[in-house]
Amino acid sequence: MTFDRRTFLRSGMALGLGSWAWAWSGRNMGQSLASNTNQKWALLLAAGQGNGANGDRRGLMGCTTDRQLLGEVLTGRYGFDQAKIAGLDPQGITLSALEILFDEHLRQQVQKGDPVVVAFSGYGSYNPPAAMTPNPTWEQALPHLGLFLDGEGEDNFLPLTTLINWLQSLKTKQVYLVLDCGFSTGVEEFEGNLRGRSGGRGGPIPPEVNPSNPPTKASLGNITLISATSPGQTAVEVQLGKQSAGLFTLALTQSLWENSSTSVMASLWDHSRNLLVPRLGTEQIPQWRSPNNSPDFLAPTTLTTGGEGMVTGLISGNSLQSQIVALAPLVQKRALVHSCYLTFPATETGSDLNSTDNSLWQVQSVKGQSATLTAITKTSSTKAESATSSTEANGGESKKEMLVGSALREIYRAIPKNLALTVALAHDLERIERVDATSAFGAIAAVETVINAGEGSADCVFGRLEAHRYSLFTEGGNPLQPLTKSESSGAVKTVIGALDPCLNRLLALKWLTLLANGNSTQLGAGIKLVQQTSGDNPLPRLIYQWRSTRYPYPPQDNNPGNGGNGIPNAPPSFLPAVATNQALQCELENFSNETLYGCLIGVNNRGLSVAAILRPDLKLLQGKEQLTWPSPEDPLWIIGGDKAIAHWFLILSRFPLAGTATALGQQITGNNSIDPPSLESHPPRVLPLKNLLPVVLALVQDLTAHGVTVAPVPDDMILLSTADWLSLPIMYQVI
To answer: Which of 44, 101, 311, 592 has its CA 20 to 30 A from that of 637?
Structure first.
């Protein structure tokens, strides 16, 4: 028996069957990928064709952007030769074109040991037989990648098993498959204000699969699968100004730009969690499956110069062209222009931000993913300055040429002095309901803009719960505030009038997200959350840990295999789980010699605004102090209530937070007098807040009181030094 190329590629014969385990391993396989003797190859596929303007699925807008984002980070950060990156766009992607391109670009050229990255953005389809388990694993599921959604022809869909077969036919074992598509069986064009990437139950079921004969488990073999979601779940894309992109691809490229080692999984989960959970809860849970359970990706071409982007070219005068993409969409939209960045040469070794070889540049304009920066003159107003003068930065053409390829790291963030919400009106509202809602939201101070869902990014969605009942939803369509039947019924304006507490809480979280800088802060601090377990052999369990990576003088990590106090590290988790009725413990550490002020604030799993105030004056950590709260003998932080998600922020500052402390005293007691009770009367514990927004606004005032003047900014903005504050989002799910 003989096979031609097409028969071999489509037959699935190279796909091994069996099972493979998923367990933690610390083996670092990434170093083998750094070899200069191997060529790096990529195949980037942008699909997303819909089934016409009148169909239930229109064409996706963000797949081409995904391809661009991945191509830029692979060439700029991982040293891929542009000639070895091939791809297809939505207008040209067909099964036959893909087969030919795969064969010519990869199968005929890839050699043993060559790293290969294949990425697909578009619609996914999932048509499980009736006998399929409700929550199948990748080894059980047989989803399809939708090239076109117009009709059920076999050439419109690529079975994932066929693509895996192709990849396993390559001579190399270093294969990474990235999928940014959904596999929900439902068909919804929008998830709230976000466009869904699930094509429903499209695609043919293989002949050997039927309800009485479930599919055989398929092995991924040597392939590392990095997927935006799991079988049966959705995936979404978000609008970024005039562009759209997959939320998961955004998170992936952010982590690849910032990461300075081969181990990517933990960074990817941090970025994905911050983008996905506030919008979708647990409806989109990314997946990472790899041989030997390695958390590694390729080795960056320079291991110590991760950042928010890189210099891509020179412009006449004192200007640079750059890509700055490792920022949250909100920061990119509201706090990128006028912010300042340090350049780090590609050959830099070490993370000392005080190097005099690094020059300081200010963002002047942004177009798409490209930013223009100009050199600024060094002043002496803050601790964080480490820039050369503009004369030094532009002292010669040879020195300017060396800046191309340099990493860019955020050093000063320009934040607006005022911020408000954008509300999207759901598609299911009638015209008169939209008119009434627009009028009602226009009278609320926390709201600045009302749009129709799908017209742009939004902070929340207003829509129907059911006939004549309304509610506020996350941007991804999850209910935000449980309303009683009487509160959610009646006229639109009446219901919106009851949403003030929820809108204020949303605005507070928006401010904290705008300030979030866990990847760029220069404060020397760390935090661990540990759960005390019960039973015959109770052991502490590490829930979450973070340590600043850009503090100029990082401490020696004497326990690389543990989370501290002998607590074993768990594999990186997308959304840490916390058991109800158990005690949480917070371990804080200050690496520096300076006092750090702060607290924990946010929204707990009951949907209540809360604060963990450990010191009455918010003088949280003395220099070199380690603080454990509460003590193991005093379990004050007991997790109870709903099985839902808690969203906290750790706030730290080099400066006293007097206004924040005053606002906390007011909101805890409900006393809004000029001289409210101080926090002295409250022992260290988690306390409910009447309104989170006044506390966060006071925090913003405390931070902006120490703004810097290293570069000009408009009157309605202010520059903050990343050496002065930390806003760190922390999320966990109560189960």
So the answer is: 592
